[in-house]
């Protein structure tokens, strides 16, 4: 029997667990298979998932439109059900508990780690722990970012149900289960009586040549073994090991097993201000974000991830470096608006693609070469051809370091001579020189040294504002920018440099709300040309923690770090920004937030030795 309505009709019912139609961004966990991810709500609903790849269209997108986005939920029929969520230790296997007067039930969610994108599967097991539950299943896929409904029929070749894209653009899914389900106009439904000791399994996979055994317990055991073995390689043994390990597990979920590239965040369209217009697509590989991610991997001992990323860089980027790429190296990421989606809590427009892909941002040269330098220190291979590519990047920097660009914050209002870009041009030359000296590689030492020192001199004097007693956002401005916190972290200046210390105090005074650090004041400086406000960037707060530790205020750094951990969600996950009411804002989970958490933890531990 086929579902008679393949259009993207509104869902039949909004979960009673969603009284305001949307859960807070923080009320989600993430699972993944190193090709795509899914967000699972604390109430047990998959409300966001792209298929089959990170940057593919969604099949579940209730997070961005409660009516037509699509979801795969389990909910208790009993009223006043409470929910708890946790990861199995050292894994990305997620447990959601349903707690009611009737007893306890559990939902286990994971994706097997696979080599091919088309070997996708989500495993979901309902378990009766104590007492009796009636659990309602509601599966309502919406293909093509919610534009299209689905066509469902019983699998003519065996058990389960086929779920087809009416236009055939996305792969056909297959839901395997022994539970009897009802095909409705919008999807599949059932009410399941769950008693103590009962296990009811659901495997959502693709209806094509899956190259692995779909036995539930076998896949669970192998998935748990993969993640625990991977976690055991983590070198960090400090006070915050749990937070650091959860962060690096999250970074791993955002990394492509096929390509080695890593995305900036799992989602698109989540707002930086509730109801606002800063709603971007972060499912791409920013050179900056990926370079910082590799730094985190290298620090923690994950050299294979760095090696795989370097292969991707050598193959896709070294001939012509641009700001961001698709995970497969595609260079054109045209931005467009999904007009049919209402957006999270009405936050529109909902954008896919990213119009900043062709922006000029000079800082990425320094951040990339700094990561190559660290990769070299960790024993990575710098071949002759790779060195030739690196020298071309340095030559570009030498020729263009005085150019205006869009800067680290990707402003869309026009180019400036940004402080952070200038510092990173210095970093690009400095680290390339260090690689050459370590490897005895040929390079024009006199020229590189001359330009590096020239950049240093211009920054030291040309970006200093005597009236503010601070380094400013761009040359000639009177704007403070939190990216100045990176100056000692990138080893451009000593953490005891008087001018930088004065800048640090100015940032503390004018850009902070307790431990929350804003990147800069939107109404005073380079603008993105958009209305509205934004939250404090988590990465800026963790930069602040590192700086406190470096200048010797280790106790204060520890307190600030602990307070920042308090803004993470119940699973230790963080979005891009934190609002002044403590709410998580922006895309989720965000690589920037987690990689900077790792770096801050390391810096405090280093100072405490």
SSE layout and pairing:
Elements: E1 28-32, E2 37-41, E3 45-50, E4 58-60, E5 71-76, E6 82-87, E7 94-100, E8 103-110, E9 121-140, E10 151-154, E11 161-164, E12 173-176, E13 182-183, E14 188-195, E15 199-206, H1 216-231, H2 241-253, E16 285-286, H3 287-300, H4 303-316, E17 324-325, E18 336-337, E19 351-352, H5 363-377, H6 384-400, H7 419-439, H8 445-462, E20 464-465, E21 470-471, H9 486-489, H10 498-510, E22 512-513, E23 516-517, E24 536-537, H11 538-550, H12 554-565, E25 577-578, E26 584-585, H13 591-608
Antiparallel strand pairs: 1-2, 2-3, 3-4, 3-5, 5-9, 6-7, 7-8, 8-9, 9-14, 9-15, 10-11, 11-12, 12-15, 13-14, 16-17, 18-19, 20-21, 22-23, 24-25, 25-26
Helix pairs in contact: 2-13, 3-4, 3-5, 3-13, 5-7, 6-7, 7-8, 11-12, 11-13, 12-13
